[in-house]
Amino acid sequence: MITNLWWVANGTLLGLGLVLTVAGFVGTTAPKKPLPWQRERGTVARRFAAQRRILLGLAVRLRS
């Protein structure tokens, strides 16, 4: 009984591995989209980078 389950599990994993390997090589037709945090991160990072430049300029000016 357990050996039958063992062979079924191995066969399932082997089949899934083959399907994923073929899909990895062939690819899909879906367009690549940026991940949710990558899209948001770019705009937020640019905004904070601009604020840092302004604050750094003010700090240098006030210090001298």
In short:
The protein contains 2 helices and no strands. It has 64 residues and is an all-alpha fold.
Structural account:
With 64 residues, this protein is mainly alpha-helical. It is 83% helix and 0% strand. The protein has helices at residues 2-26, 36-63. The chain is elongated and about 80 Å long. The chain starts with a helix and ends with a helix.
Sheet/helix structural class: mainly alpha
- What is the alpha-carbon Rg in Å? 26 Å
Tally of individual helices: 2
Main sheet: strands, sense, barrel: none
What is the terminal separation in angstroms? Answer: 82 Å
Number of strands: 0
Q: What percent of the residues sit in helical stretches (DSSP H or I)?
A: over 70%
Present the secondary structure layout:
Blueprint (H helix, E strand, L loop, with lengths): L1 H25 L9 H28 L1
Notable traits:
64 residues; mainly alpha; 2 helices; elongated
